[in-house]
Every structure is written in structure tokens, then in C-alpha cells.
Amino acid sequence: MLIGCPKEIKPQEFRVGLTPNAAREAVAHGHEVVVEANAGNGAGFSDADYVEAGAKLVDTAAEVFASADMIVKVKEPQPGERKMLREGQLLFTYLHLAPDPEQTKDLLASGCTAIAYETVTDSAGGLPLLAPMSEVAGKLAPQVGAWTLQKANGGRGVLMGGVPGVGPANVVVIGGGVVGTHAARVAAGMGANVTVLDRSLARMRYLDDVFAGQFKTSYASAGNTAELVMQADMVVGAVLIPGAAAPKLVTRAQLSDMKPGAAIVDVAIDQGGCFETSKATTHEDPIYDVDGIMHYCVANMPGAVARTSTIALGNATMPFMLALADKGWRQACEDDPHLLNGLNVHAGQLTYYAVGKALGIDVISPSLALKS
Questions:
Q1: Which pLDDT tens digit goes with each residue over 30-73?
Q2: Helix (H, G, I), strand (E, B) or coil at 109
Q3: Active site residue: 106, 233, 266, 270, which one?
Q4: Which of 31, 188, 230, 252 would suit a FRET pair with 361, their CA atoms being 20 to 30 Å apart?
Q5: Out of 31, 96, 182, 346, which one is annotated catalytic?
Q6: CA distances to 169, 254, 288, 322 from 262, in Å
Q7: Alpha-carbon gap, residue 360 to 98, rounded angstroms
């Protein structure tokens, strides 16, 4: 198979879909790899690194898309990239289709087969290709939230850990999954007073047992959420429903009850965000003010630490990428039902129920797509 990796063009996106190590593995498996020149620069990988790994360099993304059987990326294809996809081509990347009807429409029109990192599962019910970036985003959330809280950035001017005689910041994390757990750990490590909200009693027991009081937990009822958000200096949105649009858990009306200058960090923004007032921002212009509350809603947070993120993502995606290349997507998905769960689009039809429900589009089952 000819595997292609274009340079990412989403604003301020410095990650790359294939590491040189992944390219080397693919070549060792008998495949060809073509990489757009300078694709790895933002993550600290030179063109020479890819050539040494056995990849071929080309000058433009158009050459990658025109030649490759499988396109491997990080972020969802941008409008210009979607026009270059073709019938029968395999796309393997993050998609986040539920809040993105335009992308969904274009992918369906292209006739390509698209497997989304964020909906591939594992035997434990986890999301192994989303988890590495969730870990990164979770660890970044208190860091960028602390920056947002600085007075010069419009925040309350509150130090996360306080100082002797002055209490620490109150941080509320909505969601106790991978993002929420890492956000809570880092915020608590910074000295903040942290509460994690979740609806799973089993998950809260786990967090209490493993982290032994480093942070508190609370049941995520509407009443508890409203009360804790009102007391918070920082709120981290860390709620995920696999493949579906994020639920709106804090309304605009609730902002008036929050402390002036409080910070919201919406890590769920790729799935539409879990605050009613959330809208995607970029690393170049990351925050905005709604009713005196500072919102940080960067849609590719892990891109800020591109080298760490690229290597972590590459470690997770490599076995799946090799299976797709070695066997072809049909056989790979037939052999691995967890990979089949990643199938979102095939030959002009949607194959992921949560996306179809969010966008009002008819869906066929992934198993039916295998036979078409």
C-alpha cells in the first residue's frame, strides 16, 4: 500500500500524522510512504529523518493525495484537502464529525472511506487513539487555565496554589474520564482546591481510591454543577460522549452567577464544547470574554506541545495503521471489531450512529459497509 502523510494546515497545528519511526515500520512491512516536504518540522522531525526512514518526499499536498492509497493525518481534513480526497481512498485521522456538518457532507461526497481515531475502541471499552491526546489536553488544561486567570489576560488575577495567608484557586473539572483525571491531577499538583464532577459512582470511587484525597469528587447533578461552577475560579469542561456532540452543561445564564474573571477551559470543543457559550479558538487567539467570563476554547490543544503529542499519538496509531496497510481496511476491520468501530464514512454513506443522530443523516451499519 502507498501511505501518504500531508503537512497539517489547520491554524497553529504543528503535529504530523506519521513519525519517522512509523514510516520506517511501514517500509519494513513492504509499503511505500510519501510525505509532504516540511510536514514534520513543527514536531521537530526533519525531511532528512523521513528520507533516512525510507519515505519519499514530495513538494505538495496535492501530490500526496493524488498518489496515496491511505492518507494518515492528525486533524480533520480542511475544505481544500477534502476536495482532493477520492473514491476508494482511505482516510485515517481524527474527524469529530458530529458538530461538523460541512466536513461530513464533503467526506460523503468524496466517496472515500474514513476511519476516525476518536471512535476506535479497545477491549476495556476505552478509546485508545483518543486517550494519548486526552492525556495531553488534560495536563495542559490547568496550565492554560492558570494563564487565562492572570489579570493581564482578563482573568481574576488568582494564583492556582495561593500563598501563605491567601487561599488557592477553586477548580471544578466536569467529567472524570481521561481528560478530567489528568486535569485534576495537575491542578491539584499546582496547589489548587479541585473538585471533579461525574455521574458514575464507580468512577468516583476509583478516583477517591487511587488519588487518596488529592482532589474531591461530587455527583454531577444539575444542582451540584451549578453550585460548584458559581464558586469556581476555573472550570474545565472534560465531558465526552464517543463520536457524539458534547452536551451543553453550563448555560449562558449561569455565567452571571460566576465570579467575574473566572476562566473556562473547554477541552470538549472538538465535539462542539460543553458550555453554551463555547466557540472554537486558535493558539494564536485563544481566549475571549463572554459576560466577564474568560473562555479558552482552542480546538487542537495538544498541538501546543507538538513533539510530545506527535510521538504519543504515533505510538498509539502505528499498530492500527500497519494493520490497515497490511490487510486492507476491510480485512483489518473484519479481524478487529474495535477498529471497525472507527469506521465513520464509506462510499458516500455514514456508518457511525452517533454522528447520524447528531446531524440527522441516515446511517448504515459498519458491518454492512464491509460487504459493499
A1: 999 999 999 999 999 999 999 999 999 999 999 999 999 999 99
A2: helix
A3: 270
A4: 252
A5: 96
A6: 10, 12, 12, 45
A7: 10
